Amino acid sequence: MAPIWTLQLHPISFQPSIWVSKHQTHLNFMKLRPEFRFISSSSSSKQLNRKFVLGANSGSPSDPDEPAVKTQTITVAVKDQLSKWHGTINSFPPLVFVMNRYGGRNLAIGLCIAIALLVIAVRVYAARKLRYRTPGSVADLVRRGQLRSDRRGISRPLMYEDPFNNPMVKVGKSNSTVEMCGKVYRLAPVTLTEEEQAIHQKRRSRAYQWKRPTVFLKEGESVPADVDPDTIRWIPANHPFATTASDIDEDLAQNNVYQKHGVPFRIKAEHEAMQRKLEALQSEQKLNNLMIDPRNAKDFERPFKEHPRSREQVEQSSFNNQTSDSMPPTSDPAPISVESNSSSEETQKL
Amino acid sequence: MLSLHNPFPTTPKPSINLNNSTPPFSTTFKPHFPNTLKPPKPHKPHFTTKTQSLLQYNRKPQLAGETPRVVVITSGKGGVGKTTTTANVGLSLARLGFSVVAVDADVGLRNLDLLLGLENRVNYTLVEVLNGDCRLDQALVRDKRWSNFELLCISKPRSKLPIGFGGKALVWLVDALKSRQEGSPDFIIIDCPAGIDAGFITAITPANEAVLVTTPDITSLRDADRVTGLLECDGIRDIKMIVNRVRTDMIKGEDMMSVLDVQEMLGLSLLGVIPEDSEVIRSTNRGYPLVLNKPPTLAGLAFEQAAWRLVEQDSMKAVMMEEEPKKRGFFSFFGG
Exposed e or buried b for every residue in B57-71, given b needs 16+ CB within 10 A? Predict the structure, then answer.
């Protein structure tokens, strides 16, 4: 029974469209046909139903089939409604006439709107073009990928983005929920009281008794006399980063930290030492050129000069000096010239 | 706490604490009751709401306490997120307009420069300053993104720090920064190494307050408790904690201790709760701290809030507990 019912209902529901279109053109009807075929399982059964409907209209009360009777009544009812509807449609003035009455004015208004839209679009496009063309601006740099827009911390005015009044953070109306980054969390009040905090502090003060170590000794060293043994920390000799040995004077280190201007201490000291040695060397050279011992001259070298490659460089520079004796050794540092002099002396001696 | 020093007593003071027991967006006019939690009822709700919303956005948090505030960020256990916290809180403070000097006191295993993406710019360290190889201002590495953020490393990975005056050196450093020409920094944040070894002692020496980073697991809680004890013995009383790597889904399933459980065990006031976020690893890899991410991530927002509370010496009054399914509106079916 059920398949028949569905088949019967489909043509009824689509009847109006067929009915209306029948008057206008037959093509619509033909177009709708495939839909029927799609909805119903078989076209033959539908045709049979239609026959039933027609049969019922012509009047055959002796028909024993129950569904046929039902379809008859439904079809009649629908057809009544449809005829009414058709009547109302016919009573309206045709749409074409309505359109024609105001046709000229509407066309003008439409045209105006279209032109206005076009002008706006062109203006926006031109403005955008102009904006893009301004070279050298920061926005231009960002667009070209020279500058990252999110890293322009210095050029951008500072924004105090309140993390509690952020669009990503929304507090619920009842104040018991908060929405962060699209997720809703329930809020629970903190229950820790001052008393509890004090109890915890007392517990810890009992459990951990500690003095910050102030004296650091290498294992094996003796404890100084006036030092609390609790404040001593023993540092093993092979500690990865800590050492007890310090070749830096404490006051000097403090001054170094406090220094605000000028040449740093070590750099200055090195420079001065070099200067002094150079001056001493030059005065000695002036006094007695031949008495300089090459072994003493080695003391003036900086430690990295003992590298074999630098030795080669020294030799090379001495060779250069020998070849171009007239040129003053301006670019070469002092030890090299000393070395070269001494080596030349050696050769002279030999 | 947050409204102890109110320079604009006549302006409507917004209650900034999201997790406060007072309604965060309530209209509060607090000229006469600066310390009360429950504000008096507003007289002109419409007017104040409007003003407050105007003021609250782009409001600079009020700095409480004496500057420079020397904050040591410590834990005890390694790998709980001390360096991440230092980088993110430090940069958040810089974004809020405070001048910050971050000191990487992790002598043996320094990483803060990597997290900040400044590893190529560290030429001098505090050891060189002590030796007289350079001046202090030459050793401070200024971040190009936020020019009021500076980094100072204590030593290069392979050099040994003469531990005898490591702590003293940091005290000198704080003094030197205090008296520098461009003005004292507002915050000196010291990233403490793990453990309670020589590096820890060095790091806590100049500090006035401490931020204890912990994760909700028993190993890190035990270490945190011990470290808190040592800090209290050393005279640092202002200790707040940040609970890091919190997973609300696991707390809901009772597989992880809740933040309130952690607080019950340690008895410390809460500065922040940082949820577990995969973006942390990504930002570490990039050398680009989480708080600079756009759009902000969950952990980044939490770090920002923690920084805000640090500035105002505030603590959390409520914690986020678990995820609730988002209520769908009537029109959500249609995409509304």
Answer: eebebbbbbeebbbb
What mean pLDDT is predicted for residues B161-184? 88
Cα B261 from Cα B268, distance rounded (Å): 11
* Confidence grade of residue B267 (pLDDT, cut at 50, 70, 90): very high
DSSP character at residue B325: P
For range A76-97, the mean pLDDT: 67
**Contact with chain A for residue B320, Cβ under 8 A:** yes
ipTM over the 0.90 cut-off: no
Contact across the interface for A235 and B132, Cβ inside 8 Å:
no
Buried b vs exposed e over B257-268: b needs ≥16 C-beta within 10 Å?
bbbbebbebbbb
Residues 6+ apart with CB under 8 A from A56: A63, A68, A69, A71, A72, A75
User: Could you give the strand order of the β-sheet that contains A177-180, starting from the edge strand earlier in sequence?
Assistant: A169-171, A177-180, A183-189, B318-324
With H, G, I as helix, E, B as strand and everything else as coil, classify residue B81: coil
pLDDT above 60 for A183: yes
**DSSP-based three-state secondary structure for A188:** strand
pTM summary value:
0.61
Among B238, B320, B327, the residue to mutate for chain A (most A Cβ within 10 A):
B320
Q: Mapping DSSP to helix (H, G, I), strand (E, B) and coil, where does residue B34 land?
A: coil
Rounded to the nearest angstrom, the minimum Cα separation between A132 and chain B is 24
Buried b (16+ CB within 10 A) or exposed e, A154-187: eeeeeeebbbbbbebbbbeeebebbbbbeebbbb
B77 to chain A, closest Cα gap in Å: 17
Residue B305 tokens read as: 């809030």
pLDDT at B259: 92
Q: How far apart are CA B125 and CA B136, in angstroms?
A: 9
> Is B118 at the interface with chain A, CB within 8 A?
no
For A214, the closest chain B residue by CA position comes to: B164
Work out the angle at residue B33's Cα, subtended by the Cα atoms of residues B31 and B38, and round it to the nearest 5 degrees.
Answer: 120
Residue in B19, B25, B97 nearest the CB of A187: B19
A48 φ, ψ to 5°? -60, -40
Phi-psi region of B316 (alpha: psi -120 to 50; beta: other; left: phi over 0): beta
**Confidence band for B19, pLDDT divided at 50, 70 and 90:** very low
List chain A residues with CB under 8 Å of B263: 190-192
**Of B75, B113, B85, B111, the residue nearest B200 (C-alpha):** B75
Is A201–B267 a contact, with Cβ atoms under 8 angstroms apart?
yes
Q: Does B278 touch chain A (CB under 8 A)?
A: no
CB contacts, 8 Å: B318 with chain A: 187-190
pLDDT for the residue numbered B182: 87
Q: Give residues with Cβ within 8 angstroms of A177, minimum separation 6.
A: A171, A184, A185, A186, A187, B324
For residue B263, the chain A residue with the least C-alpha distance is A192
Cβ separation B59–A162 shorter than 8 A: yes
Amino acid letter at B152? Answer: L
Report pLDDT digits (tens) over B72-127: 999 999 999 999 999 999 999 998 889 999 999 988 788 999 999 998 999 999 98
Give yes or no for residue A25 having a pLDDT over 80.
no
Do B230 and A210 count as a contact with CB atoms less than 8 A apart?
Answer: yes
Q: Which of residues 170-209 of B touch A (CB under 8 A)?
A: 172-173, 175-176, 179-181, 197-199, 201, 204-205
Chain segment A135-175, per-residue pLDDT in tens: 667 677 777 766 666 555 444 444 667 777 777 788 877 77
How high does pLDDT run on average in chain B? 80
A264 and B23 within 8 Å at the Cβ level: the answer is: no
Give the pLDDT of residue A94: 58
